[in-house]
Protein: ABC transporter integral membrane protein
Amino acid sequence: MTVLKTSLRNFFAHKGRMALSAVAVLLSVAFVCGTLVFTDTMNTTFDKLFAVTASDVTVSPKSAGADDDGAGTGRPAALPAATVEKVAAVDGVRKAQGAVSSMNVTVVNSENKNVGSSTGAPTIAGNWTDSDLKSMEIGSGRAPRGPTEVMVDADTADKHGLALGDELRTIAATGDIRARIVGIVTWKVTNPGAAVVFFDTATAQRTLLGATGRFTQVSVTAADGVSDARLKKDVAQALGGAYKVQTAKENADENRQDVGAFMDVIKYAMLGFAGIAFLVGIFLIINTFSMLVAQRTREIGLMRAIGSSRRQVNRSVLAEALLLGIIGSVLGVGAGVGIAVGLMKLMSLAGMNLSTGDLTVKATTPVVGMVLGVVVTVLAAYLPARRAGKVSPMAALRDAGTPADGRAGWVRALIGLVLTGAGGAALFAAAGADKASDGALMLGAGVVLSLIGFVVIGPLLAGGVVRVISAVLLRAFGPVGRMAERNALRNPRRTGATGAALMIGLALVACLSVVGSSMVASATSELDKSVGADYIVMAQQQRIVPQAEKAIERTPGLAHVTRYKVVDATLTSPDGRTDDTGVTAADPTYAEDLRRTTTQGTLSAAYGKDAMSVGSDYAEKYGVKVGDTLSVAFKGGGTAKLKVAAITDDETSIDQGARYLSIETLRRYVPADRIPQNMIMFAKAEDGQEAAAYTALKKALADYPQYQVRDQTDYKEELKNQVGQLLNMVYGLLALAIIVAVLGVVNTLALSVVERTREIGLMRAIGLSRRQLRRMIRMESVVIALFGALLGLGLGMGWGATAQKLLALEGLNVLDIPWPTIIGVFIGSAFVGLFAALVPAFRAGRMNVLNAIATE
Structure:
């Protein structure tokens, strides 16, 4: 009880000094709990949707993929209407309904604007059936009855201002259909963001499947008393294994698994950034308790003198850390729920609907937050507590601070040098790796070892780096600048730990900036070197429908148009080994549009009759050379014997590993209705017609807003924007760690001011003005921030340069250091230091001189 009372007294006596550490714990725990609540809520939303929309038993073609038949034709895999009748005749079936559904559609309004989701959620078109009443109800109007009528979901109608009577155009692989809205359906459960339109059955079949009398699945309702498992068995037996038969649970689980993989990526990425914030928070807590222990040295000496053991002193400090961890974690769990709600509102603004009614806080979430926050806090405080327990009574009563352990300092420096050297060696080995997989392991080891090494060696580096920074920035400020330098150098361990907190976040920023900039520079260089086409036409998530393809081909001012199709196929090498990564079918003009380097043969020859090319990696792996014959089994078609006419060099980032053949060769072995749509199309303008052809091509595709026409300048800018958006998102997540690091600087300065109260009083007494005092503290903060920034940016650029060497194995050969970003971050760190010093400097300036001098 004595230890607990002492800990409580000390904690509340220094509650102001503990506040920033508690905020660091709060932020880190809140981010973890917010991530868990947000992802669990999304999973709950999808689970409810899948559970409600799944029929008791569902029958679908075995080849059905997520969006079509897997061949890229744009038409979903289908089964004959006779299958519905056969299923309806099975004992135990109360009702069997044929359903039509496709996600290979684009829906535009009367202003030719896409009304689909902007968040990546699908646009779904289908027929309206009784099975849909389980998840939706007609809120206004009625169900469609003919080819000129359509029904839309209420969420889509609200987002795009649609009403009864408005016209929608649905663009599908079989053609366009215009219809007026006659009904609006309302979801009974939360719709995460999909746009849904319904037609009558015959129209849906013609529009989405290209023929009537076919369905994409059969929705089966069980008779009373018949279990789903029993019904599945009977239906499967009646169909003879020709189709995929699933119970409601199996269907929901399959859909949940597809979504779950995406959700796991989001979840673990966000938790990774939360872990970085925790790591940075550790430095803040270590610094806080180290300084509090140093300030209470005499108190600890008295406790030891009157009989307190080392263990009791140790426990006293750890008890304070435990209390700090509990308070910070409890507040963090509550804040985490708030963060989750905020993220849900943010996603709603972006187009993904998430209802707070589905807010899911699992029992494990607060437990994880509490355990993580408390354990991290106590572990961070362990070293200061251990150091406090080692203080002897006489040494503590004699000295004003915790005596330094010179031997421990040398040991620390030696360990830091060893770890840094090992990290540097691992990074050097990664840069020279022949295989990306081997290099990635070495890169990971190098990043971890060099980071730990820099953290450990930080106090040793502080002396030299701070002196250099001070010589450049502080000497111009005379005695005040020199005092700020000495203050930063007074306790290298403290300066090193404070700078290390900022170093971690900025190292990641620098690394990702170098990688992102190098990716853009490499791709730009490759485009300039390899791409001969003037224009590129593509969509983000869809292939190019035939009517858009014809519009492109009819565009005036074009010398040629190249079609580019990705085809599922299995290759068998001369020695009998197989590879199922597919082939690329293109027009012969693609050899002009993409200038691929060949190691054997010529690329133009690969577009001849029954000929093809392979990549150099494939050729090396399977021992293939020009003149060999490969067996190519096309999905949905026949098997061809194709002669290898060229081997392309795989040291490129464009079409790496592609195996080319002509579209004419593809047509000889694959039926017309199984040939995939174009993934991309390329075009070359006639000489002198570049500007006119560009304008004409955009005009030709004006009716198809899902496709973008880009010249090489547009494409480069788009690539730069995409990488920039990704980096901005990552920087936003790293901002949490940087905020915690700033709190560390604030806390260190605040405690340092308290620690130097008497010294500040004496300086004020001999003539130091309040303005000079505040300037001194601000300069000290700037130096510490720049110290952390210099180490972090240097370390991050080293990591980024090594990562680029690995990416060079994948064709990204250009190393580009984004100096404007690096310099901007470095200068920004100075402002971070100034901001962090505002409150400590203000408090120091308000000190009463006499009271400060009288302080022990």
